[in-house]
Design goal:
Length: 595
Amino acid sequence: MAEQNEGIEVSVEELRAKYAAEQLKRLRTDGLKQFSGLKEQFEELDQDPYADPNFTRDAITEETEVVIVGGGFAGMLTGVDLQNQGITNFRIVEKGGDFGGTWYWNRYPGCMCDVESYTYLPLLEETGYMPTERYASAPEIFGYCQLLGRTFNLYEHALFQTIINGAVWDDNSNRWNITTSRGDKISSKYIVIAGGILHKPKVPGIPGIEKFKGRMFHTSRWDYDYTGGGPREFMDNLGDKRVGIIGTGATAIQAVPKLAEAAGDLFVFQRTPSAVGVRNNGKTDEKWFKSLKPGWQQERIVNFTKAVTGEMPEVDLVGDGWTDVMWRNTQAAVESPEHLAEMELSDFKTMEKLRRRVDTIIEDPETAAKLKAYYGKNCKRVCFHDDYLPSFNKPNVHLIDSDGKGIERVTETGVVIDGVEYPIDCLIFASGFEVNTDLDARVGFDPVGRDGVTLNESWSHGAHTLHGVLSGGFPNMMVISLVQAGFGTNFVHFLGRSARHVAELIKLCEDQGIATIEATPEAEEDWLMVLYGAIGNGAEYVTTCTPGYFNNEMSAPDEKAAKGLVYAGSLLNYHAHLDEFRAAGDFPGALVTKG
């Protein structure tokens, strides 16, 4: 791929100063505490609008080999891979009313994947499914999750609309005793926590927000009874409504154009703008898709990951906005001061290209200036959309920029920024999900391991794991999450390989007569050092970023946060660590007992 930023000239010194000034506007002392979970006064916002509220079933009491927590891609793929290993005695416990995880919950208008469908949707060759578009819509992805459930017989293993209340390790039987909200009692040798990373909504803790008397909901619990329409249908109830949306990240980028079409007036409340590139969606070319040779998807997935982590493969098979923006990975290891300067300049040019795109679309110069992102490309997830920026040319769309300060307060009838109240009828939170909170808070229960010690207690001074999967004191518990594990632009690539690792690890344990497996303290410490070593230029890089979930909202660093990092190197390198561990045959770094 040729240099993508040819002809773009920037002043490094001026941009450094501009980035620093924009960061300073947004720094605050409360960090992650500025957000609230959907509980207490927000509990009604967490209700499932899609499931049958009258659903009941008899409680079950059973023994099984594996309990999988979560029915999103991670949980489903674990179930698929367990069956590939010949393990069919497992349960999937899911809070929602069907499979899908984030694609069950997120049905807001305009929702679609932002990584191309051909690399994002797993097991396309196995199912024979052809995505209808390059970037599939949420209804299609949810339908595909249901197809996976049917194709791989996962429904017979699933307990839907069920929440795990507790999971307690029994040293005498070497099993997990699991109880649920439906009165179930399940004894399982293994528990796999795949409880989702982008599923638990959060809302900003704005003063007065509980006093608002209009309609209020989170994008992942969209109220179509209020808005009318559907994920693909025009929202015909909003024509006389003043709608406010809080957040300008990846969710709002997709929802705003649809709201702009339907609302009488739309107020977009912005603290920090997103960088928005070209998406260029389109229908799938059936002839091209059918011409793909066996093994094409895995090749394409790996090629995409290489491209967005700076490995610059000889051929860019995907050729989208992601591979353009991320072709040079400016957070990778720096070889010299000259290399650092080169990477910094490349980053500045990439972001300048995205800022200049704003000027080509937005008609009002003042609005255009407010929509330009002044931070590094790895500070926040870059967005790609063709209709978001043009929405601000519509007379009914109002960008209310807080100059980095955020919303001052909410009244019974509106939102206040910089002393000005904007009356609204409906307030929508596009404020994201809990990513950096404690694992037990996100999955909804606190596993109790050896000697009655809970995971929260064991991790009170920071997570301790081997590869983010095994943790000392919690035998036969395997975790698929961001904590001390991999991370990738194509998140399903990470989830799929992690699911395969867990399934193959369980199979190895069964073949070798292993009764229990957990990480040793020494291996956990060694893995932490690997994590620190993989940071490269990342630690210094994030200090220049504006607050966001990538950097814990710039919360004051402490021991716990320092240990909750992700593997910052290439996802392919993380996978290599997993593969090496399994291939060794004797579980290096794990404490095992025979049974």
